[in-house]
Amino acid sequence: MSHTSRHTALDALHRSLGATMTDFAGWDMPLRYGSERDEHNAVRTRAGLFDLSHMGEITVTGPQAVDLLNFALVGNIGSVGAGRARYTMICQADGGILDDLIVYRLGETEYMIVANAGNAQIVLDAVTERAAGFDAEVRDDRDAYALIAVQGPESPGILKSVTDADLDGLKYYAGLPGTVAGVPALIARTGYTGEDGFELFVAPEHAEKLWQALTEAGAPAGLIPCGLSCRDTLRLEAGMPLYGHELTTALTPFDAGLGRVVKFDKTSHADDFVGADALRAAAERAEAAPPRKLVGLIAEGRRVPRAGMSVVVDGQVVGEVTSGAPSPTLGKPIAMAYVDAAHAAPGTAGVGVDIRGTHEPYEVVALPFYKRQK
Q: In this structure, how many other beta carbons lie within 10 angstroms of the beta carbon of residue 242?
């Protein structure tokens, strides 16, 4: 395995902007350009520009594309209309989560799966393997796309100034082909920040032109470039799971509180998707007595909880932190954690996080921490 990092089409541009680069899932990615707090607040109040070209695109085409996806993934892909998208997951036979995904239906028999960077190869391999016997083609399109996101309350206005696509008619979790700043793009109203926003899939050779055009169009509205660091605090405040933290192969979607993404009745064959039997059992377990629940924790002090730290009540370990960070919006450290059901109700007293031997007090809250005013 080589240790040379992959570079996005915008690599030189990030460096010219003075970005602090970091290795992320084998890619050199911008962590921040300036202050993480400023970038976070820009997305919450104005707009931020992200390079997400490390995400993994997989195209599935052919007469049985939808049948393959219904078999390979846990969601009902047959109910996704043309031009719409669906949040879903791919699981192992034992029900463990391999990745969480967004599937876009681009045409009658054409779908695009967008996988997390660190899992793109795993997802590609799994879908390819599961395609045996289906009249469908699975294509690795990771190099065919750069992905640029504009997120925040000012993003519709900014994007409108550089496209004549019908953005007002574009619902959340929908995508349409259009021209943005003279560049052909798939315009999707999706994001990972808890704000309104768009993700633009373009050919890598057009990425720089698009980035520059959006930078200029967004300047009057206060748009700034944003790195992966604020993307993490934004998604954490919005209560959105991150693979490798809230989602792992050790957990089923039901364990993660996301059982709603699993659809058992999507085909005429009862057990006709990978992991169906295991997930049925997981659904029954979750209904009977959920082992642990994913909750929010808000610090009463200043110390920041980190993934892997123990959640404690009366000196006993009752859970584990999966993600933690200072929240710029709340002004306090926050965390997501899996906590024993007995201590998972919002307002539960006496809950702490073991931070290097000290049990720091935390308030249990329902997720998300932050919800934008529509």
A: 18
Q: How many angstroms separate the most distant Cα atoms in the chain?
A: 61
**pTM above the 0.70 mark?**
yes
**How many C-beta atoms lie closer than 10 Å to residue 139's C-beta?**
14
Strands lying side by side in the sheet with 20-24: 6-7, 27-32, 20-24
Architecture of domain 290-374: Beta Barrel (2.40)
Which residues does 169 contact at the CB level (< 8 Å), separation at least 6?
none
Beta strands 175-180 and 224-225 are unpaired
Q: Domain coordinates of the chain in residue numbers?
A: 6-53+145-237, 290-374
For 205-242, how does the pLDDT look when each residue is reduced to its tens digit (9 = 90+)? Answer: 999 999 999 999 999 999 999 999 999 999 999 999 99
pLDDT tens-digit series, residues 264-300 = 988 766 568 999 999 999 999 998 987 899 999 999 9
Eight-class DSSP state of 303: P
Q: Which two tokens stand for residue 339?
A: 């906590």
User: How far, in Å, CA of 101 to CA of 355, rounded?
Assistant: 33
The pair of structure tokens assigned to 271 is 């057990």
Which single residue is written with the structure tokens 């921040």? 32
Task: Label residues 156-187 b or e (16+ Cβ within 10 Å = b).
Answer: bebbeebbebebeebeeebbbebebbebebbb
In the chain, alpha helices (H): 11-16, 36-45, 65-72, 120-130, 155-160, 207-218, 228-237, 276-288
Angle (CA) 346-349-354 rounded to 5° is 100
CB of 36 within 8 A of CB of 234?
A: no
Give residues with Cβ within 8 angstroms of 257, minimum separation 6. 293, 294
CATH of domain 6-53+145-237: 3.30.1360.120
Q: Which amino acid makes up residue 346? A: P
Is 364 in contact with 297 (CB distance < 8 Å)? yes
